[in-house]
Write a structure and sequence with these properties.
cell membrane, about 230 residues, transmembrane helix, LAPTM4/5, 3 strands, cell projection, about 65% helix, mainly alpha, endosome, three-stranded antiparallel beta sheet, disordered N terminus
Length: about 230
């Protein structure tokens, strides 16, 4: 007979490149951690030297600034929060603490919802793409080339690109969710499932219940010699 745990029968434990969901979640958390750390370093360098990232009105096509101090501080706070969330997810997957993965999973859901809203906006208001491109500075790279594309083809290309992104993000969400269920089930489940050769399953009760049931039985009658 083959003994397997119940969480391995209902949830996938493998992800991309045939690695375990714990390994995939750790790699994903480290990748997000490095990315947000790089963004934080860029923001701090821009805050220390504002002239380096300052663009004139002629470069932006209007009386605008690349980023003022208020937006810079908000971006730095978001980057610090993301570093904390990614570090929690990485630590939770490594030490098998399921609760530490929840904030990162919630961030993934929020990010997926934002991208889905962008796709819905492009689908409902296709002319908004052209309006957005017209508002870009005249010297923006490939602005004229994009404006020359057929609006219908441009909408289809953008929707295809967003669909690929949503599919990839959905796969990463499923990887993190399976990691959470795997760790949560591994830490809390006390039930074993025996799979017999004829594909039938037998659930064994927890050890405490089996002990109580076994001690509750009446003792056998005393032996009487003939």
């Amino acid at each position: 007979m083959k003994m397997v745990a119940p969480w391995t029968r209902f949830y996938s434990n493998s992800c991309c490149l045939c690695c375990h969901v714990r390994t995939g979640t750790i790699l994903l958390g480290v990748w997000y951690l490095i990315t947000n750390a790089v963004v934080l370093l860029i923001l701090l360098s821009a805050l220390a030297d504002p002239d380096q990232y300052h663009f004139s009105a002629s470069e932006l096509g209007g009386d605008l600034e690349f980023m003022d101090d208020a937006n810079m501080y908000i971006a730095i706070a978001i980057s610090l929060l993301m570093i904390l969330i990614c570090a929690m997810a990485t630590y939770g997957a490594y030490k098998q603490h399921a609760a530490w993965i929840i904030p990162f999973f919630c961030y993934q859901i929020f990010d997926f919802a934002l991208n889905a809203l962008v796709a819905v906006t492009v689908l409902v208001y296709p002319n908004s793409i052209q309006e957005y491109i017209r508002q870009l500075p005249p010297n923006f790279p490939y602005r004229d080339d994009v404006m020359s594309v057929n609006p219908t083809c441009l909408v289809l290309i953008i929707l295809l690109f967003i669909s690929i992104i949503l599919t990839f993000k959905g796969y990463l969400i499923s990887c993190v969710w399976n990691c959470y269920r795997y760790i949560n089930g591994r830490n809390s489940s006390d039930v074993l499932v025996y799979v017999t050769s004829n594909d039938t399953t037998v659930l064994l009760p927890p050890y405490d219940d089996a002990t109580v049931t076994g001690t509750a039985k009446e003792p056998p009658p005393p032996y009487v010699s003939a």
